[in-house]
């Protein structure tokens, strides 16, 4: 068995209320083992037979849609993949931990298009990307950021769920 984390998008925001105990129970019924949640924002640790993380993400999204009636996606990462996303974040060491985020994407995206967008973006945020993640230092504060609107208007990125570096380190520690 491999230990994974699922980072669900749109959980406990915008009316998509979901008790973590109910989510754990639903996943356990679908052959996910040692299911554990970390804070109430859709971070789920579990063991599963090793398989591509995209397939596990689709399975979790299906369970949430079928059982709870709302659309979500799950960015699933193994322990090593999560560790790589933390070490690969170029702002993790010199940014304010609450402001440094990793946006986990629902699917791979056009990194060249994102790099072009980032080169022309005039906001205060620092930006970088990988194949399945976007790294952001919200040095001007998350609440006042216009980055999401600008990315949506430029049609770069796609569906994503964000976690700050403190949360990611806590999740990684819990993964053992």
UniProtKB/TrEMBL annotation:
It comes from the Bacteria. SUPFAM superfamilies: SP0830-like. InterPro entries: DUF1697 (IPR012545). Gene3D superfamilies: SP0830-like domains. This is DUF1697 domain-containing protein. It comes from Croceibacterium salegens. The lineage of its organism: Bacteria, Pseudomonadati, Pseudomonadota, Alphaproteobacteria, Sphingomonadales.
């Amino acid at each position: 068995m491999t230990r994974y984390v699922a980072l669900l998008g749109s959980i406990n925001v915008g009316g998509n209320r979901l008790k973590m105990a109910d989510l754990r129970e639903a996943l356990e019924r679908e052959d996910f083992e040692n299911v554990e949640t970390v804070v109430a924002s859709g971070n789920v640790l579990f063991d599963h037979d090793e398989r591509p993380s995209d397939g596990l993400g689709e399975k979790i999204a299906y369970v949430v849609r079928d059982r709870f009636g709302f659309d979500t996606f799950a960015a699933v990462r193994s322990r090593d993949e999560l560790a790589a996303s933390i070490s690969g974040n170029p702002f993790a060491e010199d940014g304010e931990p609450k402001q440094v985020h990793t946006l986990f994407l629902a699917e791979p995206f056009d990194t060249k298009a994102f790099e072009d967008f980032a080169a022309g973006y005039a906001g205060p945020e620092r930006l970088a990307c990988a194949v399945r993640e976007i790294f952001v230092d919200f040095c001007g504060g998350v609440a006042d950021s216009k980055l999401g609107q600008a990315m949506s208007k430029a049609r770069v990125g796609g569906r994503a769920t964000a976690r700050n570096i403190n949360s990611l380190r806590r999740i990684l520690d819990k993964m053992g």
